[in-house]
Amino acid sequence: MGTHSDHRTPTVADPVLLTEDEAAHLLKIQPATLATWRVKGRPNLPFVRVGRCVRYRRQDILAFIEGHLASHTGQGRA
Known about the structure:
By secondary structure, this protein is α+β, with helices and mostly antiparallel strands. It has a domain at 17-67. Helix content is 36%, strand content 14%. It has three helices and three strands, in the order βααββα. A hairpin with a 2-residue loop joins strand 2 (48-50) and strand 3 (53-57).
């Protein structure tokens, strides 16, 4: 039997989980901002608890960015 190498493409059933620092880096914000958002429950950015660790699905971060696109500053916030 040969060795098994796992080269699957991530899917919804197999999400890429980011640390708080990685998610903050992707959003160009401080990790403390993510912690504040979690406590306040807004803006709505889903997260996953793995024991005491907090993780964010990459797909949720990207959807969050897409959902907050604006064409001018007069647009209301989502």
